[in-house]
Amino acid sequence: MKELFRDSFDSNKVEIVEEKQQKKEIKLIGQQRKIRGLTLWEFNEVTHKITRAKFKKVNAFISGTSSSAALVTDTHKVVVGEHCVYVQALNYKNAVKHLKKLGYQTFEP
Questions:
Q1: Of the candidates 102, 74, 105, 75, which has an alpha carbon nearest to the alpha carbon of residue 86?
Q2: What is residue 7's DSSP assignment?
Q3: Measured distance CA(90)–CA(38) in Å, rounded
Q4: Is 40 helix (H, G, I), strand (E, B) or coil?
Q5: Alpha-carbon distance 51 to 57, whole Å?
Q6: Could you read off the pLDDT of 11-30 as tens digits, one per residue?
Q7: Rounded CA gap, 18 and 108, in Å?
Q8: What whole-number distance in Å separates Cα of residue 10 and Cα of residue 4?
Q9: What does residue 100 show for φ and ψ, rounded to 5 degrees?
């Protein structure tokens, strides 16, 4: 029994483990052009809740060909949630109709 114990743990061997950091990738899921007058709604497939989508402001640099200075504009990106589907609609009731057409079952309040 002592022999098995000594063989399994050898004090001469040292194991070096290198931890790798996970790469943070930005992956394009899809694009929608904003239609004036409509609101972007977020539908969670797990909880079946419909809420307004949240945006974050991002600066975009556009280099001009006619002038040497670059233009700086503000763009808005959607904060994408897990298990969420996004729909543009006029109001909440209209968003429910769009989701039903796509085949999602919603729980209305």
A1: 102
A2: H
A3: 5
A4: strand
A5: 19
A6: 565 666 666 676 767 777 77
A7: 50
A8: 11
A9: -65, -35
Asked if residues 76 and 59 have their Cβ atoms less than 8 Å apart, the reply is no
13 token code pair:
């061997």
Reported as a single tens digit per residue, the pLDDT across 35-84 is 999 999 999 999 999 999 999 998 887 776 565 566 778 888 899 998 99
3-state secondary structure at position 42: strand
Candidates 65, 42, 44; CA nearest to 55 is 42
What's the gap between Cα 17 and its chain centre? 31
CA distances from 99 to 12, 70, 78, 95 (A): 64, 41, 19, 6
Nearest of 43, 38, 25, 40 to residue 78 by alpha carbon? 40
Any idea which residue has 């109001």 for tokens? 91
- Length of the chain equals 109
